[in-house]
Amino acid sequence: MKKFSFTIKNFYSIFNTMPDGNNKNIDSYLDDNIKQTLKSRTSDDFSFEMMKRVEIEKEFAKQDRKTDNVAKFVIGGLLAAMIILSVGIPLLFGVSETDQSTGYFSMITDNLTGAIEYFSILTTENLGIAFNLKTLSVLIISSVFIFLFSKADKLLLKKF
Amino acid sequence: MSLSDSEIIKNINEGDTSSFRIIVDELKDKALSLTMKILKSREDSEDCLQESFLKLFRSITSGKFEERSKLSTYFYTIVYNTAVDNYKKLKSRRFSIVSIDVEGSSFEEGDDLLRKYYDAKIEKNEFDDKYDLSTESIISESEIKQIISDYINSIPEQYSVILTMFYINDLSHDEIAEILRLPLGTVKNRIFRAKNKLKEIILKKFSEEEILQYV
Known about the structure:
The structure holds 2 protein chains of 2 kinds. Chain A is an all-alpha fold. In chain A, 81% of the residues lie in helices and 0% in strands. Chain A is built from 6 helices and no strands. Chain A has helices at residues 8-15, 19-38, 46-92, 97-101, 104-126, 133-159. Chain A is elongated, with a radius of gyration of 38 Å. Chain B is mainly α. The two termini of chain B are 30 Å apart. The A-B interface holds A 9-10, 12-14, 16, 22, 25-31, 33-43, 46-47, 49-51, 53-55, 57-58, 61, 158 and B 15, 17, 20-21, 24-25, 28-29, 32-33, 36-37, 42, 45-46, 49-50, 53-54, 57-58, 61, 144-145, 148-149, 152-153, 160, 163-164, 167-168, 195, 198-199, 202-203, 208-215.
């Protein structure tokens, strides 16, 4: 036996007495269909492949941090050496009476030259390497290059 | 997402990458809908999506994402910008090698996607001729769905992208305007016009009663 079903939407379609309601219903019908049409699905292994790339990315970040730490250690070491050279050694080997009268900064620069000369004599005597202002400049410039290279490398790795 | 954005970000920063998978699973399909509207090709769209997820991961781990907006909104901004960049790269590559690849796209040679966002209009009768609008007594729901699908797939990208952001990515008008750098009124107007034109096409072919059978 055929069942008679009477739903509210049939009521609208038969009598058409609620234009505003119809309008809303059509709007929501269109909204649902627009959504269905716009939907896309990624391939089944997308998440798996994505997470593999994320793990690689994480490993890269770890390596970057290591490189960063090494660079910081090298730069820190050089800075410490420079401070020792400029302040520590002059203080260690004493300051002359005349130096004290010309102010602290001129004392440091004067004594830095003296300290470098003293260090140069020491390295020449013991290692056979002449250590002077030029050598120091080369060392500083090299460390700056190392620092810049490591930063640039990091940036490039992130970009590609 | 069952976990809040903050909890997910905290977990990722503590080294728990499985939390990132929650984001991937939640947003991948919705974001693909957006990239597909710009890049058309599934392969290019999935590549773009992977690139976007990596950018998001880096932003989270580097602390660049400051939770000023929702994580999903921030991600869709990345997706949109990456897709536009990739579109520009692919366009120049494709046009220089072979032009057949872009025949399916409604972009014209030399067009700029962003500029077109400002110039786009749905011409009044542009879509009417495309469909047979003569009234038929017998209709099927699949026929209506087919017309809607054809319409959505044939409207200019500057409309379909906004519709995707609104209907699929669940972005507000304000968020869409911010991502696309368009005035709020333009965004609202485009959504209204695109939908209204579709309604007009459907109602020319079918009566309200016929459509309401399927509601």
